[in-house]
Design goal:
alpha/beta; single chain; Rossmann fold; binds adenosine-5'-triphosphate; about 20% strand; ATP-binding; 4-stranded antiparallel β-sheet; about 30% helix
Length: about 280
Amino acid sequence: MLKGLGFNGDCIGDRRRFCGGGGEPVTLTNVRGLDQGREEETILSPEPKAITVRELCFAYGGQAPVLDSLSLQVAPGERLGIIGHNGCGKTTLFLLLCGLLKPSAGTIELWGSPLQPGKFLPEVGLLFQNPTDQLFATSVWDDIAFGPQNMGLSAETVAQRVTQAAQLTGVTALLERLPHHLSGGEKQMVAIAGLLAMAPKIFFCDEPTASLDIRARRQLINFLGQFQETLLISSHDLEFVLEVCDRVIVIDQGQIVADGGAEEIMGNQTLMVSHGLEKPYSLR
Ligand SMILES: Nc1ncnc2c1ncn2[C@@H]1O[C@H](COP(=O)(O)OP(=O)(O)OP(=O)(O)O)[C@@H](O)[C@H]1O
């Protein structure tokens, strides 16, 4: 869970600066396909991991470590579910991976380059647990446009990005509305549209189904099912994780205690219970 943005002085900068994106048009299916330079590089040399974390440690303001020598690799295009009991450090890990928190020790690389905490990350999108944390403009259009505008794109390109992102997330009819008058599910889809408008290459979703009803949850599953970039989802909605993610890690006591196929990990009753989790109903 996100405990506000006052991270005892460990938090770096403004969240909107980090909900960045790449330079490509917004589509669910062709974002990587459009990136021909990267395809050519792939032929010449193996593509670096999207995320490489080595011995990552973090503690909030002199408290006990939340993350304790955690190491992780995520391949480009992988869909990784992050599960664990309340307070195990899932949100903290996302904030570190976005450069919003600075590690106490250890290293983080995105596509083979060291992450510099506090630096603008044009290709990383973080969907906050509470969509209200992400919306602040006086119209949905302005909210979705905020990111592309801050990337220095032309007014025409910004308008295109807003239109495309709104279509992809099904919020076109809401574009003139006040974000704070929307329902929880509508806010969530608008927040996603705002991130997509920046064409992120890595998308972190923190508890994305928390405020969604069954229909909106299904819409999100369908949506993320088509998303082709690297996707990391932290959630207590294990059925959701099962549907969207291929791989799952379990975090406990600051470390990854299990890592494998989603069904393999979440179907293991002993493992799940021993880390304060329950086997999803559909795997019983
Ligand atoms: N700003 C903060 N200052 C001090 N401690 C914090 C802060 N934010 C989180 N914590 C603590 O760090 C630990 C990890 O919190 P975090 O939100 O990362 O866990 P989580 O796995 O996302 O939890 P949940 O499943 O409940 O959302 C918790 O013990 C929490 O109380």
